[in-house]
Specification:
181 residues; alpha/beta; seven-stranded mixed beta sheet
């Protein structure tokens, strides 16, 4: 891939790489989760290995999570929300996070794949920074991803874990797919 030609290119529907799904699964498989929500499930690869009840929603299947109003009972949310489908200044990962808190509560464990700009490059007066400080659950772990982690996309992305105190504070995604957590 020519880095200069692809600088900043972002697809709106980018499947989560299998090695990322496997890494998340390996981190969480023994944590005892009973019900998992993926509100932007695509092909369901983020939750497919988990042996528990799953709620997989996707707008392509007529299930728009952002329009839902009923509370959702789950103990883990795993999501790779669309990054750039918003109009104007709408930031989709922020909309998903707001809706997760609204429907699932502030105490639910959350694993969210998101642009690094979700938590970085904020101004002191940023509304999102205020949410991160006071409304969103605490970020308990960060998983750093290589910029070329997603196929045909170069974008600074990370995985933020909220309310998952049993994880280490920081992980680096192994570059060797055979590496074990």
């Amino acid at each position: 891939m020519d880095v200069k030609k692809n600088k900043g290119i972002k697809r709106s529907d980018t499947p989560t790489p299998t090695n990322v799904c496997d890494f998340i699964y390996d981190l969480l498989k023994d944590k005892g989760f009973k019900k998992i929500l993926d509100p932007a499930c695509g092909d369901k690869r983020l939750t497919e290995k988990f042996d528990c009840e799953k709620i997989n929603l996707d707008i392509k299947e007529g299930q728009d999570f952002l329009l839902m109003e009923d509370k959702i009972d789950c103990d883990l949310v795993i999501v790779n929300p669309p990054f750039n489908q918003g109009k104007g200044k709408v930031f989709m990962p922020e909309l998903f996070m707001d809706k997760i808190i609204e429907l699932c509560g502030k105490n639910v464990s959350i694993v969210m794949i998101t642009p690094m700009g979700f938590r970085l490059n904020q101004k002191k007066t940023s509304k999102r920074l205020k949410k991160i400080r006071s409304i969103y659950p605490p970020i308990t772990s960060i998983i750093s991803l290589p910029v070329d982690c997603f196929d045909n996309t170069l974008f600074h992305t990370e995985i933020l874990c909220f309310n998952l105190n049993t994880l280490e504070p920081h992980y680096l995604l192994p570059t060797d797919e055979s590496a074990v957590v």
